[in-house]
Amino acid sequence: MLREFCGDGTGPRAEILSSSSLHIQGLTCPAQAIGTCAAVTFVVNPGGTGNLANGQLAIRFSGSATGCGQTFSYTSTFDGQRTSTNPQALTAELGTVGAALESELARSF
I need a labelling partner for 98 at 20 to 30 A (CA). Which of 11, 58, 60, 84 fits? Predict the structure, then answer.
């Protein structure tokens, strides 16, 4: 799971396709208040991708945010490098991506 994307700490699930690629599944986050809008819903469209090459993880997905009569499209990109030597520590936390998206949308809602 790509944690911390939604306001409740959840995020879209990833389906492992091979040792170097994954598929991002779709998700509708619970509504949350952003700016002056009391209920904004983030949707992650299915079909996002993730690839691992030379120790670098790249994740890309898109979706929309809808609330108070407005809808905005977005594309999220995460690029990172694994820093842990623990083989169990393979988790992408997208809290900063979600927070940045929320901050940008707060100007519009």
Answer: 84
